[in-house]
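Entry:
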Amino acid sequence: MDNVSNQVPDYNRLLHDQKERLKELACINQTTAILKESKPVEESLQQIVMLFPPAWQYTEFTVARIIYMGKRFETSGFRETKWRMAQEFTTIDNEIISLEVYYNSEFREEFEGPFLKEERDLIQNIGSLIIGYINSYKARDLIKLSHATSQEIGYQSDLSSRKLLQRFLNRHNAERDIFHDLTPFRVKEILLVANFYDPYSIEGEGRFADHILGQYYQFNLTSIPRVTGVSNEEDVFTRLGSRYYDMIIIMIGIDRETPLNLCRRIKEKYPYIPVFLLLGNSTDVTFIKKQRALGMPFDNYFVWKGESKVLFAMVKLLEDSVNIYNDTRKGLAVFSLNQ
């Protein structure tokens, strides 16, 4: 009996440690995914800082801040306390970026105050990913500036036939590869929130996915998102706690208050996840506009009128809004090669 009782605490500790490592791994993976989308640095930093609290041991008592170029990117309810973990990094042009994590309550002593050794490793890894991303941006800007300066002073040089051939190949490769570099962000996971008692013809995740699937096939698109359907608040937060979702779609039918209250709670905890509302009746548009004016936090809204294209439009609108910076930059780069 003593052996069993001694083993239980060890098992619980092992289980706890494994959960913490999974949280840390999820933070790294989500940071990498955000950086791969090639959005502006400021937007990326705001998204990344929101990933910090779920990755630290005492999530509900964790706030975080990133400081860069005099700007502060903070989690909701941020405030400084004496329980602080911070790390500074330096860019290639000697700008400082600071990553800070605070607990707003006292906890038992660990490796570094109340913080774990693995959390120190995590903040260093996240910082390394961010600094690499920022440096790549700065390097591209320096190359563009150098190229522009050379043109301004009328720099001319005789190019050998080998250089001319290389220029042609570079242009050809750029034009070919542009299509592979466009739209780096794609919606892969959708969380669909619907009350199955509302009179919808698409309320189930299966039929919802079928509608999207048809549109993707029509446009010969192969990257089809996975739709996960839930019908209550408990399931929503259970899903959000176990997997990263690119967008959340909340259906609003006869009951309007419950979905909107849920929308607010989702945005309070996961402000970086886009939330779209899908209205079952066009007469609700005025009500939704009024709610937005009163501060209801949602990203966009659509009306379901039996036309499946609206579901595809929701996905593509989000993808385009995220990818516009990257796609414009890539397209202009190819255009400049042809001048």
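The beta strands are 62-68, 71-74, 83-90, 96-103, 189-193, 226-230, 247-252, 275-279, 300-303.
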